[in-house]
Amino acid sequence: MKRNALFISLIVLLAMTTLLPASLVYADGHCEFADETITIGGLAPLSAPGAVAGGVAMDWAFNQAADDINADCGVEIDGVNYQIDVVTGDSEGSPERGQAVTERLIQEDEVDAMVGVYHSAVGLATMGMLEANQIPTVFSEPWNDNVSANGIREFDGAPPRFEDGIDHIFRISPASSMVGSVVVDWLLSLGVDDVVLIVENTDYGQPAAADEAARFEAAGATVSKIDVELGTEDFVPILSRIQARAEAPDVIRILVTGETSFNLTQQMSELGIAPTEDTICVTNQFAFQSDQYWATVPDGNYCAFNRVGIIPSLFSDAAVELNAKYEEAWGDIIPSFAMASYDAVYILADAMERAGSSSDAAAIVGAIEATDLELSQGRYYFDYGAHNPDLPEDTPAFMWHQWPDPIVTVMQYYEQGQSGLEAAVVYPEVYQTHGTSYIVPGTSP
Amino acid sequence: MVIQDTLFVLWLLAAGPIWAAIGMFLLPLVNKGNADKDQIPTTTLKIAGVISGFALGPLGVGLFYFEPALIRRTTLTAGIVLTVFVSSQVLVRVIDPELPSGLWLILAGPLWAALAAYFLPRQYRAVEANDQNVLTAAALGGFAIGPLIFGLMWQRTPKISRDWMIVLGSLGAWQIYTLFAIHNPANPCVASPFHVTYLTQQTANGIVIGAIYSLMAVGLTLIYSVQGIVSFAHGQLYMVGGYFSFYFLMHSSNVLSELTGAEISINPIFGIPVAAVIVFVMGAVFERFFLKPMHEGLIERVSEYAILITFGFGFFIEYTTLAIAGPFPQRTDRFIEIRRFTLQRAQITDDFAFGPINIIGDRAFAMVVGVILIFALLYFLQRTWTGRALRATSQDRQAAAVTGINPTNMNTLSFGLGSMLAAMSGAALIPIFAWVPWVGAEMVGRSYVIVVLGGLGSVPGALLGGIIVGIVEALGAGCHPDPSRGAAYKEAFALVIFALVLLLKPTGLFGREQT
């Protein structure tokens, strides 16, 4: 009898030790989750030669979004709650590596959808694979126009604009042309007519420079372009070449990313080339991360930079909350690509809920096209897709599956050590915070 | 803060008449202790001291003092370069642009270089003449004087000295510069009236950054000279040296600020010895545990082992640093609160002005630190017992062991010192560049070029190689006919030098011939 009681007690104990953690996992306080999880693949540069600082921020954002969604009972499909699990692969900023990692994410991790990428080259290289495997994808940072322009495909009455249609790809970062037009309009409004573009030799830099150069030249400005390799540390020889010109240029526009842009901007300032009264300095959007910027570009006061994403003064409660989490994790202001990466996971989760499936790619794509969602960067929607296939003549092809409203502004520091949140928004006029479209070095707005 | 004309004052301190006088008195001491037959004429030494001190200050005097063999050849090179430069400037202004390039390709240039490099060494071997340096001289000669080189070398098969190569190389360089000037009259490197100022600016840029490159390369060459291995962790040791300096400065500043209640910032110069000590210990410990077995015959495939183990060490350092420090760029405060030294424009004649020339303050400071450290190392290697023991071990391990030197300890010391030099280089550069865990990748690639150019195992070679690479990169980026591509090809210019050296003189400028 005693032996039976002992045996039953052991069985009960074993059952409790097995079931207790299970109940903790699946109940998670107030939510009950299904055994299966929804796996979203993330692609970001987590090691050199990619922009690691950007990749790490994106990876943080993917996982933070997943945590926040799971804390809010995950994705509810047919009355069952599913947790989201993000598996991030390291693209290293290389197209070949990006393809290999994407292949692994699709075949081995069997991801239901994808988010990423930082580098345009990686986005362009992986689009075909994602389309072939019918993986709904929301890109949150590549700027190359063709990332979404390739999404045009043949519909009734609309001619195909590209032979290989990409239909599962969406983008919530701006196209280079959208950013370029704002910066060029601003500079032209200031009356510049002698422009030097310093451009990284990548799938982001070269098309962006070509687009901006065409806009400047169409307005009658003279453009000189200087190509540089990412990872270069010493720019003094080429900057000396600019300095040796008979006339100082009106503006030096830096289309270079990451720490390479910091080195370039600092050396330009140290040599007294820009920013000066004669020459405007327009550096990369990384400058918005003010702690990093001032740590590495201590002489960069009065440099302007393009900012993508909602301006700090218009941060919603969601953006303020997200920024606080980021500051707690990394001690700096959240970059726009981290906000966009966070929102990308939410867009997919929302679409899966509305599609009622995490695996029916067509249904998810349809749901993403019908997105109408207020997130940290603003209200997300997609004007053109299968739901509205006819792009007007004057609408560029990249607007297919493209979020049309990423806010692009030009900001400018005017105090040494100033927070990015306090930098002046100088353009467009509607967002101006200090009543001026340019702060001349040595003055205050 | 911009200091007007400070460059001139700095030059007076770092070079100019004071150092010319020092050089004039110091260099004759080279003869002290030498046998009569090895003595260099005192007048020659005095002249060399004046010129080197005036032009390059302690750098020039030190180089000649430690390597007196350079005196005659450097003087010859300088004379030829000056002649070439002046004559090409004259030619540029009188010759039809279309004529010379076609003529040159027929009469000299790459075709004749290839022919001479193919046939002349065979001729030397056929007549059993001394064929040392013949390949280099034939290629340079074919390039510079075309078929005439066959006339000079085919029948007489003269012994080729370095003077041959200096003369032929300079002639080739002169032709390239002249043709370049004829075809790119608007290029800032040749366009009057800016070219002298511009070339001086770019050469100064190259010397400043080149001296900094040298410090890192010296560590690599030291390890190779003693151990016969190339450290593939050198870039990461350079990187981690910068980070040790950064964290030391940050934490010690915080502690001092808390203790005193005032904002205290410690000058980055103090981070250099801290990084040096820590990384020396790291390197020495690594050598004891992982490289020592290699020298004790416990490893079967020594070369492969050395490559893999140092690669592994490098990866370990890089990814540990990434995990601890994060991917976001860092930088320390400045060495000096002078943003740049500027030599203002001076109107020499009605038609000719010189200046302005700008040098970034912190770079100039780092260059001085680098040069001082290299000469300190040279002094250590040449004038102390331990340094001589290191050199002896590098020349013949067994003979060194017979004289009472412990080669095992010398191995550890060399790896520790080499690692330390990389770390000091990193600590000297973290106020200048944005610092990330993968910052060593670009620098270490350049270091390999420098040590091959200077000669594997040669410290003066690494110093000179660094400066040459710095100047080549600066002039390459600054003078490239297409300004949009100059900066993108910057590293490629050094690689061209690398390829040429491997092709024409595999032992490098100061490398020892294999015996």
Task: Give the key terms.
heterodimer; A: 445 residues; alpha/beta; Rossmann fold; 2 domains; seven-stranded mixed sheet; B: 515 residues; mainly alpha; three-stranded mixed sheet; two-stranded antiparallel sheet; 5 strands; globular
Biggest beta-sheet profile of chain A: 7 strands, mixed
- Rg result of chain A: 24 Å
Radius of gyration of chain B: 24 Å
Termini of chain A, distance in Å?
A: 90 Å
Number of helices of chain B: 22
Strand order of the largest sheet of chain A: 8-7-9-10-11-14-15
Low-confidence stretches of chain B: none
The CATH class label of the largest domain in chain A is: Alpha Beta
Number of strands of chain B: 5
Q: Per CATH, what is the topology of the largest domain in chain A?
A: Rossmann fold
Helix content of chain B: over 70%
* β-strand amount of chain B: under 5%
Count of helices of chain A?
Answer: 13
Largest inter-chain interface? Answer: A-B, 43 and 48 residues
Summarize the structure.
With 445 residues, chain A is of the alpha/beta class.
What is this structure's SSE topology?
The complex is a heterodimer of chains A (445) and B (515).
Chain A: H1 2-27, E1 33-44, H2 52-71, E2 75-77, E3 80-90, H3 95-107, E4 113-116, H4 120-132, E5 137-139, H5 146-149, E6 169-171, H6 176-189, E7 194-200, H7 205-218, E8 222-228, H8 236-243, E9 251-255, H9 258-270, E10 280-283, H10 290-296, E11 304-308, H11 317-330, H12 336-355, H13 361-369, E12 373-375, E13 378-380, E14 408-412, E15 424-427
Parallel strand pairs in A: 1-3, 1-4, 4-5, 5-6, 7-8, 7-9, 9-10, 10-11
Antiparallel strand pairs in A: 2-3, 11-14, 12-13, 14-15
Chain B: E1 2-4, H1 6-14, H2 16-26, H3 42-56, H4 58-66, H5 70-92, H6 98-107, H7 110-126, H8 134-145, H9 148-153, H10 162-183, H11 195-227, H12 234-260, H13 271-295, H14 302-325, E2 340-343, E3 346-347, E4 353-354, E5 357-360, H15 361-383, H16 385-395, H17 397-402, H18 407-429, H19 440-454, H20 459-479, H21 483-486, H22 490-504
Parallel strand pairs in B: 1-2
Antiparallel strand pairs in B: 2-5, 3-4
Helix pairs in contact in B: 1-2, 2-3, 3-4, 5-10, 7-8, 8-10, 11-15, 11-18, 11-19, 11-20, 12-13, 12-14, 12-18, 12-19, 13-14, 13-18, 15-16, 15-18, 16-18, 19-20, 19-22, 20-22
